[in-house]
UniProtKB/TrEMBL annotation, chain A:
Keywords: Signal, Sugar transport, Transport. One of its GO terms (biological process) is L-arabinose transmembrane transport. Residues 30-294 form the Periplasmic binding protein domain. One of its GO terms (molecular function) is carbohydrate binding. The keyword Signal applies. It comes from Flexilinea flocculi. It holds the Pfam family Peripla_BP_4. This is ABC-type sugar transport system, periplasmic component, contains N-terminal xre family HTH domain. Residues 1-23 form the signal peptide.
TrEMBL record, chain B:
GO terms for molecular function: transmembrane transporter activity. The keyword Metal-binding does not apply. It is a multi-pass membrane protein. It comes from the Bacteria. GO terms for cellular component: plasma membrane. It is found in: Cell membrane. Keywords: Cell inner membrane, Cell membrane, Membrane, Transmembrane, Transmembrane helix, Transport. Pfam families: BPD_transp_2. The keyword Transmembrane applies. This is Ribose/xylose/arabinose/galactoside ABC-type transport system, permease component. The chain crosses the membrane at residues 54-83, 90-110, 116-136, 157-178, 207-227, 248-275, 287-304.
Length: 331, 313
């Protein structure tokens, strides 16, 4: 028994010593998700890995499971694994200073994806994602264009109401919905025609919040709906359907397109008239490129790198969305 | 005969065998595991759950279960940071420890005085505490403002993180108490046969009450160190802590039936989980596969425990 223990201890010591002298070949990059059970983040990680390998690096995927403490631990594990660069969608923005310090102390390049974070000094960590204000502007413009084309504002028989579905506690969501409202006003909608629908970011929450607002305004015949994400618009469209509104009397413009495209793919009439397509694939690709440029080419990561977005509708979504996203529309 | 005795040895020392196997695997399959920086990292990662697991060992040995530890960590986290911001760090720490002890007292009193089962009591407390944490924090996270507190958990003393040293001290002290004192040995009696213990003159209710108080005290200490590490008061942290802690205690050879177990065993159990998670991360094995592996390991351990228990009946 003592011999067995001695052999075991010698093995451990040998492995410890050998671990310190072995060096990695291709640079390692780690991508950390905040939630690996959402399609958007799955796409982001897969694209990151594919792009990294295409650029000659190796990549590992971690999942923080919406737990801030696990997020910090995974940064430590990524550093221990020998990562030269880390892309993280933080489960909680308040861990920013802690993870930025850990990465800086280890000499590892850190970028934030989707949710911006700051370091200990309050300086922003390089960010890859979407421009919230620009997204809001595009959604608002699309809604305004559709509203103008429908001619509802000039028809005395029609009374228009706008449902702005908002996560009012999230600045990133306010960036979107504030700009959506600004754009819709440019085509002639007034403040008293806009109704805020507060929700948590989830479908059921917006459905519950929109119901009473719709019921309280029976005089409104035609509705325009936009919000922070597709889930918010979907819940509100469900509430409108429950209240008896017809798809032709609704202009729903989503943000994400992953819910909007489902009735389009099924050929069902719906209130969804357009949505802003945002792709996790684009963010993953951009993040991988930014890290590669920083580690291999010594390029300082820009403070903000924005992935492209585009408005899609039933006629063009198959052309403008990638194959994976289009496939998900039929699920 | 020899084969049988070797199998018996493996069964008796199963946690050490599993740990040894994992360490060899870690060395073979990852080149980073045995680096000094990673070993320090593992020590830091296991420390908070480890401290909580020490407290949970007392509860499980005495025949109970505490499902509320994860929610209590979240509450402690929120209290520590909010009070740090409003007053100072020491007040945050003191109130957090007091809150922890209060939760333990409440758990213990509901179980011993009211007679509600440990499972139902701590399940209810888990939900209640989670709600309080969300209410106190207004459902969002708060950043710490004390840089010294932010460095507390990973502050190195002879190269070992402070949190890991606290964990080791808890292990040594708790083990000495359980093994070397008559009061400590009483926990085994209470967990193994509460009726006989009562008839022998042991105040079983007091033992059970103190087990829950100690468990919650350990949880508060673990929660404070975790909060220091992430420098954030969050009402949603430690979602997996309850499962991890119970798993570590069971992996260490403590029986859910009560009356059997050691703190050193729990220490090994915590190491097993820490090494396994870290090794899988280094190997790039994703979150859900990790959950499957951990689940399988736990089921195998419980089966081994059952086999061992049946052989000694």
């Amino acid at each position: 028994m003592k011999k067995l223990f001695a052999v075991f201890m010698v093995t451990i010591v040998f492995l410890t010593l050998s671990a310190t002298v072995i060096a990695a070949d291709a640079p390692l990059y780690v991508v950390i998700n905040k939630s690996a059970d959402q399609q958007y983040f799955i796409d982001l990680q897969n694209a990151f890995v594919a792009k990294t390998e295409e650029l000659g690096g190796t990549a590992k995927k971690f999942d923080a499971k919406l737990d801030p403490a696990l997020g910090v631990s995974l940064i430590d594990d990524a550093i221990s694994a020998g990562a030269k660069g880390i892309a993280i969608t933080v489960p909680d923005q308040t861990i920013g200073p802690a993870i930025a310090k850990a990465a800086k102390d280890a000499g590892v390049v850190l970028i934030a994806t989707d949710d911006s974070i700051v370091d200990e000094a309050g300086a922003p960590v390089p960010f890859v994602g979407f421009d919230g204000k620009d997204m809001g502007k595009k959604v608002g413009e699309a809604a305004g264009k559709l509203l103008t084309e429908a001619g509802w504002l000039n028809d005395s028989a029609k009374k228009v109401g706008v449902l702005s579905v908002e996560v009012q506690t999230l600045s990133v969501c306010n960036d979107r919905t504030d700009n959506e409202k600004e754009q819709i006003k440019l085509v002639g909608v007034t403040d008293d025609q806009i109704f805020s629908v507060p929700y948590t970011g989830e479908t059921l929450s917006s459905q519950d919040a929109a119901g009473p607002i719709i019921t309280a305004h029976p005089e409104i015949t035609n509705w325009v709906v936009f919000g922070c994400n597709d889930e918010g618009v979907l819940g509100t469209l469900n509430a409108l359907a429950t209240a008896g509104a017809k798809p032709d009397d609704i202009i729903g413009v989503g943000l994400g397109a992953y819910e909007a495209c489902k009735p389009w793919a099924a050929g069902q009439p719906s209130g969804w008239k357009a949505s802003l397509f945002i792709s996790g694939l684009d963010v993953g690709n951009t993040a991988a490129q930014v890290l590669h440029d920083a580690v291999v080419n010594g390029v300082v990561p820009p403070e903000k790198s924005f992935a492209p977005t585009s408005i899609v509708d039933p006629t063009n979504y198959k052309d403008l969305m990638d194959a994976i996203s289009v496939g998900n529309c039929s699920k | 005969m020899k084969k049988n005795s070797f199998f018996q040895f493996l069964l008796n020392k199963r946690s050490l065998v599993i740990l040894g196997f994992l360490l060899v695997c870690a060395g073979v399959f990852t080149r980073e595991f045995f680096t000094v920086s990673n070993l320090t990292n593992v020590m830091l990662q296991i420390a908070t759950d480890g401290i909580i697991a020490v407290g949970a060992t007392f509860v499980i040995i005495s025949g109970g279960i505490d499902l509320s530890v994860g929610s209590l960590v979240a509450l402690v986290s929120v209290i520590t940071i909010i009070l740090q911001t409003k007053f100072n760090t020491p007040i945050g720490i003191i109130v957090s420890i007091a809150a922890g002890i209060s939760v333990g007292l409440l758990n213990g009193l509901l179980i011993t005085r009211v007679g509600i089962s440990p499972f139902v009591t701590t399940l209810g407390m888990m939900t209640l505490i989670k709600g309080i944490a969300l209410a106190v924090s207004d459902s969002h996270s708060h950043s710490g403002i004390d840089p010294n507190f932010a460095r507390l958990a990973d502050y190195p003393i002879f190269g070992i993180p402070f949190a890991a040293i606290i964990f080791l001290l808890f292990v040594l002290a708790a083990n000495a108490f359980l093994v070397k004192t008559s009061i400590g040995r009483g926990y085994y009696a209470v967990g193994g046969n509460p009726e006989a213990s009562w008839l022998a003159g042991l105040n079983t209710n007091r033992y059970i009450l103190m087990a829950y108080v100690f468990c919650s005290f350990c949880t508060a200490i673990g929660g404070i160190l975790l909060t220091s590490r992430i420098n954030t008061g969050s009402p949603i942290i430690a979602g997996d802590t309850g499962t991890t802690v119970v798993s570590a205690v069971l992996l260490g050879g403590t029986s859910m039936a009560g009356g059997i177990g050691t703190v050193y065993g729990t220490f090994i159990g915590v190491l097993i989980l820490g090494v396994l998670k870290n090794m899988m991360n280094l190997m790039g094995i994703g979150g859900y596969y990790q959950t499957i592996f951990l689940g399988l390991l736990l089921v195998i351990t419980v089966l081994a425990d059952r086999t061992h228990f049946n052989q000694h009946k």
